[in-house]
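are you around this afternoon, could really use another pair of eyes. what follows is a protein written twice so to speak, once as letters and once as C-alpha cells for the fold. i want to understand how the C-alpha cells follow from the sequence so walk me through it. anything you notice is useful, everything is just below.
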Amino acid sequence: MHASRPAADDAGQHPPITGESLRLALAALLDGLPPSQAAQAVERLIGTYRGRTPTSAPVLRDRSDVAAYAAYRMPATFEAVRHALGALRDAAPCWVPASHLDIGGGTGAATWATAATWADGQRTGTVYDWAEPALALGRELAADAESAALRAMRWQRRPIGTGFTLPEPADLITVSYLLGELTEADRDAVVAAAAGAGQAVVVVEPGTPEGYARVLRARAQLIAAGLTVIAPCPHDLDCPITPGTNWCHFAARVSRSSLHRQVKGGSLSYEDEKFSYVVAVAPSVAPAAGRGPAHRVVRHPQIRKGQVLLDLCTADGELRREVVTKRRGALYRSARDVAWGDTWPPADGPVAD
C-alpha cells in the first residue's frame, strides 16, 4: 500500500524531506503487519544482518523482513548519513550534486538523506544493492516521496564485491553501513570504484572501533586516489588517535518508533546513533585554500562554571584540548552553543584570539 503524498504548499512546492516524513512513509509500509511479527523479524535480523552477510546470500529474504528491518534501521541510517552530508554541504556551500550513486543502498536511506540535505534540483541517481526485496521496497518508498529527485531514482540489483565497477561517474557517491558486510578485498574494490567515479565520496559506518577502522582504511584509499578529506578530519594527515586507545565517532539523535521501543525494551522517545564517517572530494569540490574547517570538535564539550572545554582534532593533525573562558566574550558564547561534531571556531562566528 502506498502512502498518500502531502499536498503542495501555496508556492507549489512539496514539504522538505525530514526524518519525520521518512518515519511516516515507513509506518505506512508496516500497516497490516502484526507488531509482534515485525519485532521478531527485527530481533532475528539484528543478530545476522550487519557484518555477517556474504554478498551472494542476503539475509533480507522477503518483503516482511525488509519492511520490519527498514522501519527499525532506516531512520538511524538516515540521520547518520544526513550528518555526514551536512558536513560536506557546510565545507562546500556552493556545491550541489546533480547526480548521486548509492552503493549497497538497500532501501535507500542515503538517498532520503541526500534529498533532505539539498533541495530538489535536476538530480539523477541510482541505488545499487544485491537484495531485490530491499530494492523493491526502496523503490516503493521513493515513488510516494515529496522529493522529485527521490521519485526519479533508479534501483538496480548488482553483486557488490571484488570486481565491482561503476558504469558512470557521479557528483556524489555514498557508501553507508556496507563495508562491514564485505571481505577486506571487497571493501577495497568498492572504495576504489567510488574514488574513481565520484566528485565527492561519503563513507559511513557504525560508530564502533571496528567501524572506525574500516572508515580509516577507506580514508587512506581515498587520499591515495587523489581526493581531499574535508570532514570530519580538518586535514589529510594520519589520524592522531593512537590505535587501540580510542576511536573517532559521532552521534545523531533519532526519534524512536513504537517498533524501536518494542524491540529494545526501552521507554525513551529517542536514541543516539553512533557512527564514524569520512567525506573526501575532488579538487573541483574542495574548499578554497584557507576556507576549510580550522578544527573539529571530537567529544561532547564540557561546560563548567565560566569555561568550556573543547576536545579538538586540529588542522595540523593533532588532538588538543582548548579551554574557552568567559572573559573571551563572543567566543565563549559560541563555545557554549557548539556541539560534538561541529567545526571550531564556527565559520560564521567570532575568530579565536
Notes: The first strand starts at residue 99 and ends at 103.
